[in-house]
Amino acid sequence: MKVLYTYRQLLVFAMAILCLYPSCTSNLPEDLDALGDDVNYSQTLFEPTLGRNTEYQNPVVTGNSSTLPLTFKIVNPRTVTGQPATELTDKFAVKTWKSIYTGEEKSLEEIEKKRTTEYRPMLEIQEKSGNIFFWDSGNSGFVKTQPDSGYIFDVEISNSGGRRFARNLKLKPMKERPYEPSIYSQITGIATNSSTYPYRLENLEGERTGNFIFFTDVKVFFHKNLDNKNPGSSLTFSMLDSLNKVIDIKKFDKTDWNNLVHGFNPTFKNGKVTYDVAYPIPLVNLRTRYTDISGTSAVSNFVFDRKGRSGLVERNIVGLQYSIYEPGHWEIQVRFTGETPQFEDDK
């Protein structure tokens, strides 16, 4: 009888435990994420060039002691003297992509349907990756640029386990350079040269001497036509001889005009060729038929064939590698300062 009573006691005790279990577990704290001291920014200095979209990818070291995903937020952007940097947090109109650019678009309308205008702060952070993004909306008229010490900002890093801060990250923008290769210093904004050079010259010989034309004999100029008030943007290519007279661009008759640049409606007029384009050029960092292998620069090759001294047909090429960041009506002009190229066959 005593043993039976003990079993009843155990049964009652067990039932009591089961009845209490929901109320007890409901009061237990939820599991919290871990946030370790080893999560931080490996890159602490950011030097974007004004007028360009710049993304700093993978600047965060997460370590092994933090629970992912983390959340990142820019905190207290300020000048080096501690004044609020509202120019970095005010929102400006920028172009963003709502569909993927492929380089296969067949018209300006198709490109523009993939883009939209949004209002974003100049300095942004991707919430879940910590990547730093600097939009192209600023200029040196109101943004501090080098040699000024620029700006300082902090980044709050958090999850449900708490938060910590990456302190005193430095932002030191460079002055705008609307095209590359550029003649302007990123620090002073002053031109250090009057022209640039082509990136490719093959087999060109002088019309007068028959000597090879070298890179030092060819200059490349970028010019933005501020007087052209027509809507939209365009890019014109032109060639000048040693007397600064226009060489008919059609003499480069083996040029692939339809794929010279990702532009449309090529128009030949006054010895030049003009395309309707969307800026920047290239539109994104993506390798396409119009770019170099990195996708960061456009490549345009002007080509003609002629029979050389050996009696064999030689391919002649003038190649340009460039980027243009500022919308408008631009012209890239190639000047042969020594001799005009020979286009006729050798006898």
UniProtKB/TrEMBL annotation:
Top-rank lineage group of the source organism: Bacteria
InterPro entries recorded: DUF5007
Signal sequence, renumbered to the chain: 1-25
Species this chain originates from: Sphingobacterium cellulitidis
Keywords: Signal
The protein, known as: DUF5007 domain-containing protein
Pfam families: DUF5007
